[in-house]
């Protein structure tokens, strides 16, 4: 069967743009198939529209922040890592800055600048792009993938190629085109797709407390996940209250354990330690000192020394303390209640918003069925995978985009290098 292209890349997101560009730069004739009207739709919304490009840290840090099999990425990271993606951007005029937590952003704070630079790097030589086209079926013969069947505005047709790279993403943010198409293509080739679920997702909490605190952000707190009364995980950092519940970096990171526990039907709570730098004994000493020093103040005023103002009426209500009560009238029992609430401000977790609000998807095509040195399927020749479609996901902070860049580069390089 005559080949129309050397390589077909399905999906024009972060992984797809890099894969297509690398293959084309090596001389392959490439077709990039994208179901949306434009490339890189998800890139545009990453980092709240700023694009957290990568994480400026050594590989060892990446391994601690990626699940479930981070060392699968050893060869991909060796082929293309943080310095490589930043060079592509810098060479095309996109200056970057490293912010708190080693997160790298464009100085312009514009995701569109990153997408444009990636498309400029990819270039037009040796590449055709078809938009608003869905790859619905793999073409195979004798254990090898020979192309795809696409459906576009002009109808369905078969396109033959020497290799196919699936870069369709997961199921998160479906409005950007990530609706799980790659999982079905993988299953057609006999691949195992582990259970997929939302990851890096905000949490919905019961009651009205979070809603009353909407818009309040807390820094330097410790959040603990409690599952059926047992401590499951914890994270230090920033948290944000929303009308539906809890969000922010620590919540997104902890959501992995929360989503799994909720799926199992477990009772889940989040406890917030407002004063993680002080253990209970030291905090009690501080409370005593402040109460003794300001005994004539009203309770609502002494709380200003301990908490953001928006939290004070909520705490007073939960503690059942009259805000006008003089501090010298607060007894030991009330002080113990204050201490306990500061160290363990509890919220019952009732759910999450699902894929529509999830930054990424956990689960996907099993890494045990992909050659980590090439990103080629171990089950079907000439079939490759890159990006979020693979069962790999990382914590918030730029890890997931780097996974996409690195696996896309390696897949594009290896499939083009093996062309006859």
Question: How would you characterize this protein structure?
Answer:
By secondary structure, the protein is α+β, with helices and mostly antiparallel strands. It has two domains: 5-197 and 360-417, 3-Layer(bba) Sandwich (FAD/NAD(P)-binding domain); 202-353, no CATH class. Helix content is 32%, strand content 27%. The chain is built from 14 helices and 20 strands. The chain has helices spanning 14-25, 41-45, 59-64, 74-79, 82-91, 111-122, 181-188, 209-212, 249-263, 280-293, 299-302, 312-319, 332-343, 399-417; strands spanning 5-10, 30-33, 54-55, 66-67, 96-99, 103-106, 127-130, 134-141, 144-152, 155-166, 193-199, 203-205, 217-227, 230-241, 245-247, 268-273, 345-351, 360-365, 383-385, 393-394. Strands 1, 2, 7, 8, 9, 10 and 19 form a seven-stranded mixed beta sheet that branches. A six-stranded antiparallel β-barrel has the order 12-15-14-13-16-17. A three-stranded antiparallel beta sheet has the order 3-6-5. Helix 1 packs parallel to helix 6 (111-122) and helix 10 (280-293) crosses helix 13. The longest helix is centred in the last third of the chain and has 19 residues, at 399-417. It starts with a strand and ends with a helix. The model has no long low-confidence stretch (mean pLDDT 96).
């Amino acid at each position: 069967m005559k080949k129309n292209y050397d390589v077909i890349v399905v999906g024009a997101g972060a992984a797809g743009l890099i894969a297509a560009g690398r293959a084309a730069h090596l001389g392959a004739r490439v077709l990039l198939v994208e179901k949306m009207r434009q490339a890189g739709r998800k890139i545009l919304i990453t980092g709240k529209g700023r694009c957290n490009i990568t994480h400026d840290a050594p590989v060892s840090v990446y391994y601690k922040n990626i699940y479930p099999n981070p060392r699968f990425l050893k060869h991909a990271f060796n082929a293309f890592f943080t310095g490589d993606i930043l060079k592509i951007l810098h060479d095309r005029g996109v200056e970057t800055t490293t912010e708190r937590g080693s997160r790298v952003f464009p100085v312009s704070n514009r995701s569109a600048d990153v997408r444009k630079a990636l498309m400029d790097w990819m270039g037009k030589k040796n590449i055709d792009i078809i938009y608003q086209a869905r790859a619905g079926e793999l073409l195979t013969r004798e254990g090898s993938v020979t192309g795809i069947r696409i459906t576009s505005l002009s109808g369905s047709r078969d396109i033959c190629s020497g290799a196919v790279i699936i870069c369709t993403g997961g199921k998160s943010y479906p409005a950007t085109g990530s609706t799980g198409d790659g999982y079905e293509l993988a299953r057609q080739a006999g691949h195992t797709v582990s259970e997929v679920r939302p990851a890096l997702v905000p949490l919905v909490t019961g009651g009205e407390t979070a809603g009353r605190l909407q818009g309040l952000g807390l820094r330097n707190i410790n959040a603990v996940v409690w599952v059926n009364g047992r401590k499951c995980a914890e994270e230090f950092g920033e948290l944000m209250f929303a009308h539906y519940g809890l969000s922010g970096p620590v919540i997104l990171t902890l959501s992995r354990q929360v989503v799994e526990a909720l799926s199992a039907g477990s009772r889940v709570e989040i406890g917030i330690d407002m004063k993680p730098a002080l253990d209970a004994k030291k905090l009690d000493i501080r409370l005593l000192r402040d109460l003794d020093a300001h005994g004539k103040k009203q309770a609502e005023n002494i709380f200003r020394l301990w908490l953001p103002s928006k939290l004070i009426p909520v705490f007073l209500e939960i503690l059942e303390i009259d805000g006008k009560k003089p501090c010298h009238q607060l007894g030991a029992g009330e002080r113990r209640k204050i201490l306990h609430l500061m160290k363990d401000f509890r919220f019952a977790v009732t759910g999450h918003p699902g894929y529509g609000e999830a930054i990424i998807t956990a689960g996907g095509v099993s890494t045990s069925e992909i050659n980590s040195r090439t990103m080629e399927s171990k089950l079907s020749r000439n079939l490759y995978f890159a990006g979020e479609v693979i069962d790999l996901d990382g914590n918030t902070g730029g890890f997931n985009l780097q996974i996409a860049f690195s696996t896309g580069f390696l897949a594009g390089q290896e499939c083009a290098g093996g062309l006859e």
